[in-house]
Write a structure and sequence with these properties.
The chain is of the alpha+beta class. The protein is built from three helices and nine strands. The chain is 28% helix and 27% strand. Bound molecules: zinc ion.
Amino acid sequence: MSLPIVFYGNPILRAKGLEIPKITAEIKHLAEAMIETMHAARGVGLAAQQIGRALQLTVIDLREVDRPSQLLLGTREVPAESMMPMVLLNPRITQSQGEEDGNEGCLSFPGINADIRRSATVQVSALGLREEPLRITATGLLARVLQHEIDHLNGVLFIDRMPRETLKSLETELRKLEKSTLSGLKKRPRDR
Ligand code: ZN
């Protein structure tokens, strides 16, 4: 089941996600629905806040995008595609290295793209959907998407990381999006 995506202006996007203490059937269903939602929207990642839930849960799938990534699982290099779609619970960045500029969009900001500076390599600890502890080292697009999604889980948005000039040039567009989201919330207050 594809879920409605929450847009910029909805306060849930600023909420820090609650840690998931136990992987229940409800969490598994939610993860599945988030994967479907991400695929339907042709996104490469989706955080729980973006479907209106403040939880430490994100899904990632890079298979449709032609931008390289490297992935180590522990110390073993594995093809990134073999882990997709990836479901991560309670992910934390434990180490990061280097810097890289790259273009990003976000399903909660339709039509908005910008170059954002991120760490080039990150190490992430998380739980997988079978409660298995994961230690992931990623570079390339995967490193970028992990940082973008883990930001979401902490209520941080890519506009917070944009250079001031970029943000300024998007100001009108952002205000418009925020306004239309807020007026939608007023009309259907119990939807989200
Ligand atoms: Zn996003």
